[in-house]
Amino acid sequence: MPTSRSRGQKETIALKVLILGGYGVFGGRLAELLSDIAEIELVICGRNLSRAIEFCDSFRGKATVRPLRLDRAEIAQALEVECPDLVVDASGPFQNYGDTPYGVITACIASGTDYVDFADAADFVFGVSKFNADAEEAGAFVLSGVSSFPVLTGAVLREMAKTMDIVSVRGGIAPSPFAGIGLNVMRAVVGYAGAPVKLYRNGVQTVAHGLAESMRYTIAVPGRLPLRNIRFSLVDVPDLQVVPPEHETMRDIWMGAGPVPEFLHRILNLLARARAATALPSLTPLSRLFYTVLNLMKFGEHRGGMFVHARGLRDGKQTEQSWHLLAEGDDGPYIPSMAIEAIIRRLLDGIRPQAGARPAIRALDLADYDQLFAGRSIYAGFRGAQTASDPIYRQVLGAGFETLPSPVKALHDAIRSRTWRGQAEVMQGKSRIARAVCRIMGFPDTAADVPVSVALSPEQRAEAWTRTFGEKSFSSVQKCGTGRNDLLILERFGMITVALALVIEGDRLLFVPRSWSLLGIPLPRALMPTGRSFETGHEGRFRFDVEIAMPGIGLIVAYKGTMEPV
Fold it and tell me: What is the pLDDT of residue 10?
């Protein structure tokens, strides 16, 4: 077979890894993550030799790559010929492995070869422990489900368990619409749509139906731009079976996925419920249709995320905590492959997992992921329970509130009436429409230096802001968003309400518009007000810089200045 490296380089190989499905979505990304390691040889396997050759020809990096045509049914012969140090099963769908689902695992144990996989099928991962004694005797490790579910979720929950006894867990993953979903992943998802899914409820293992149950959630790392509120539907992932035994107080668990566009997601929901309520056959024949449509309809924000939300007891009192992850651009799709990347890098450092066969829920700790995320646009953080009695900015920002400049914290960290005063500069837009909007909203007139004051007063879980520039005043009411506006600030100017994300960028608190409405009726986002507005500190004083503009109109009004508390 052709190889991308010279004979001299091959003599330095310290680890040979055979990847089943090596040119697929997960296998290909794993190879990319390992591309900087000159001491590794990656055998890129699959049933389509031309695709394997194409992948190797386009591969860039120090690692040695070699294509190999291989059907999983022929794994025993391949192990005898290739003698790899590690087998990675990145093919699937693991739910459809037929009468001998563990054929690759038994062949690896028989040859004493270490094995890991990306399995997302709960029954498959949970059942791998029955090979533990054989794997121990062979001196090989067999780790199943080495992916975001359940390795990353398990690491998060162990961290949470340090401060609470976990009783119930909800979690979900929201891929970027631009990430691209492999056909085998789509076969797995569509295959269990409407089929029984095992999970724990009220401390008892029971069944629900895949994709037939849904919930909404906002993924919002403190201080980062949150994802838009997303619809998640129940998926059959290993966590549902392997996580509860890890926490003796856990009684409920639910895990979902939030693919977009939402209308396609809802079609899957309807089909799943129809299958659950009737005797419809498996929806697997529709897999290619959904795969094609989903990969064609790439629009929206190129961002993805993940959340784990736990409720439990701390010192006998009810509490809750959530963990949020955001991945920008192309970095998110690599997260599922990072756990196997970490294991392989440890092997090169002489650190081996203990021999035996088991789910990989304890393969990594959260600190390991912090290292894997370093240098990438991947951000994660915890949120405590929201308390309605807290100031609204503290509720929305969570732990990020403590990182604000002192004057900004001082302005927002109170629930009593207060007044701040200072000087400001104002500039109105020059167009007739801009001036008309300013008159209607009561925005101040253009002025180079004008006295300014802001009076803040609490009112029914909200806060009224009255801004006075010289002798001209205008008001708004701010409160925490709920539902689809969860973890946003809602600011109402008369009949118009704007949903704002609070984003911390350096020493600035930015206000980013996410949606707007008229008397509760959503308005087109394409026409939503824009402008870069922020708060910060300057020489111990509170500094504000607000810009309001409209698409097609331009600047409406901009004002900036500094203030101190009265």
Answer: 52
- Contact present, 426 and 452 (Cβ < 8 Å): no
- Res 11: pLDDT: 59
| Phi-psi label, residue 385: left if phi above 0, alpha if psi -120 to 50, beta otherwise | beta
How far are the Cα atoms of 4, 32, 70, 387 from residue 61, in angstroms, in the given order?
10, 8, 24, 50
What's the pLDDT at 50?
Answer: 97
In the prediction, which pLDDT does 464 show? Answer: 96
Bridge partners of 139?
A: none
Per DSSP, the residues of 8-35 read HHHTT--EEEEEETTTSHHHHHHHHHTT
Rounded Cα–Cα distance for residues 359 and 363 (Å): 9
Give the relative orientation of helices 103-111 and 75-82 as an angle to the nearest 10 degrees. Answer: 30
Cα separation values, 412 from 390, 396, 429, 446, Å: 10, 12, 29, 27
Structure tokens given for 83: 């003698």
User: DSSP secondary-structure letter at 468?
Assistant: E
Q: Which pLDDT does position 186 carry in this prediction?
A: 83
Q: Token digits for 451?
A: 């006295």
Residue 222 DSSP label:
T
504 SS3 class: strand
Confirm if 123 and 205 have CB atoms less than 8 A apart. Answer: no
The closest alpha carbon to 357, from 140, 42, 507, belongs to 140
Among left, alpha and beta (phi > 0; psi -120 to 50; other), residue 562 is beta
Kindly tell me the number of DSSP H helices and DSSP E strands found in the chain: 17, 27
Q: What share of the chain is helix, strand, coil (3-state, %, to 5)?
A: 30, 35, 35
Closest to 323 (Cα-Cα) out of 480, 152, 488, 504: 152
pLDDT at 284: 86
Q: How many CB atoms lie within 10 A of CB 406?
A: 11
Q: What is the pLDDT, as a whole number, of residue 9?
A: 47
Q: What is the DSSP string of 30-58?
A: HHHHTTT-TTEEEEEEES-HHHHHHHHHH
DSSP state at residue 107: H
Q: How many Cα neighbours within 13 Å face the side chain of 453?
A: 10
Specify burial of residue 207 (Cβ count, 10 A radius: 0-12, 13-18, 19+): exposed
Q: Which two tokens stand for residue 20?
A: 């089943």
Q: Is the peptide bond between 177 and the residue preceding it cis, with omega within 30 degrees of 0?
A: no
Q: Which residues of the chain have pLDDT under 50?
A: 1-9
Residues 6+ apart with CB under 8 A from 512: 225, 500, 501, 502, 503
- CA angle, residues 416, 417, 421, in degrees to nearest 5: 130
In angstroms, rounded to a whole number, what is the distance separating the alpha carbons of residues 563 and 183? 57
CB atoms near residue 292 (< 10 Å): 12
In this prediction, residue 13 carries a pLDDT of 85
pLDDT given at position 96: 64
- Please check whether residue 565 is in contact with residue 418, taking contact to mean a CB–CB distance below 8 angstroms: yes
Report the residue count for the chain: 566
Query: Which strand (E) or helix (H) includes residue 191?
Result: helix 183-191
Of 255, 242, 253, nearest in space to 214 by CA: 255
Strands 472-480 and 462-469: antiparallel
Judged by DSSP in three states, 178 sits in coil
